[in-house]
Hints:
The protein has 15 helices and 19 strands. By secondary structure, it is α/β, with parallel strands linked by helices. The protein has two domains: 102 residues, Leucine Aminopeptidase, subunit E, domain 1; 317 residues, Zn peptidases (Aminopeptidase, 3-Layer(aba) Sandwich).
Amino acid sequence: xxxxxxxxxxxxxxxxxxxxxxxxxxxxxxxxxxxxxxxxxxxxxxxxxxxxxxxxxxxxxxxxxxxxxxxxxxxxxxxxxxxxxxxxxxxxxxxxxxxxxxxxxxxxxxxxxxxxxxxxxxxxxxxxxxxxxxxxxxxxxxxxxxxxxxxxxxxxxxxxxxxxxxxxxxxxxxxxxxxxxxxxxxxxxxxxxxxxxxxxxxxxxxxxxxxxxxxxxxxxxxxxxxxxxxxxxxxxxxxxxxxxxxxxxxxxxxxxxxxxxxxxxxxxxxxxxxxxxxxxxxxxxxxxxxxxxxxxxxxxxxxxxxxxxxxxxxxxxxxxxxxxxxxxxxxxxxxxxxxxxxxxxxxxxxxxxxxxxxxxxxxxxxxxxxxxxxxxxxxxxxxxxxxxxxxxxxxxxxxxxxxxxxxxxxxxxxxxxxxxxxxxxxxxxxxxxxxxxxxxxxxxxxxxxxxxxxxxxxxxxxxx
Length: 464
């Protein structure tokens, strides 16, 4: 997909962004023939309306796109991206943007609208291309678009071609592109290296479980990203029904998201020391599968009773989080397609997050609003802690009752982060269930742009 802007050129066409209350003024600024055309076309600048403007010889010389009223504008993210597929191929520039934040959103949406997953069928189509709007940080927008494209590609690839081996290779390719270091522990070496729960979850599959550990940067505040890399989740011996298994290729969406975020960070050469940890497994069914009722020892030393083998993501994350916590970073972020309860709470479009740090929560919420990447803080409600304590072991991986599922999962993960000053957990969906502007149906990054936007404030020179 095109994830870069095109150079400015004198013959570029203009896409005019027009709100209803500015329609008359804009129309009166046009040549008389185009004024007549706009009136005859019935263009009233309603949200999503597109009017192609004729040139002197009948060619398309430009276009107008309706922004709609304030209510319509608030209801649609990346609205301008809806025009991209309807415009003739070639370079375009935007006119009528109100401020730099709007311009950045419109520019990012334009680049994301060009995304197509073509690994198995079809090919990239020729679309209208955008000249970077004035005042927009083009490199930053391009880095976000490229990171999102990587995340989408990884999630969209079916599990037969995106197992732990392939996810490791994607991380190695990314490390090679940016000069990062990478180390991988896999198979039975996980046991000797102290990652028993990663091993237990992945041992039933012939595709060896592993922990991917990538690091980049030599100076600055420290940031550790931990992404759930369950490349396919059958549910284990607590087998999922067929209808629930259909989207389980996306259960490595957390890993895909942190790799996309890492790409943006490294592309922009942000002044941080970055570490990325991905426990990559397949939760399969065989004679060696871990069982309901098993009690597993974790890297942290905590024992975990298995009451549902389909609550495996928190197990592999726990070992990775424990490793990260042994050399506490200034900020740790985990991302995982962890619970259906999070989807029930906020739907597919919002990325809920959990943290005890009020300043971090405020920064992420503000960043999500600015960058149009909706996030929402959920409570780490301490009175629910006893739900995690089965008595026979330190922790229960799947408390009974069905209430507060996303909260108890986050509380579970927090038990493995004891020394890191600031820890945030994102329970993402990783999937766009129906097409929307700049967001085709399929794999999707969530929370990544909000994190990227907030990082400079969260990781200042002192890491405080």
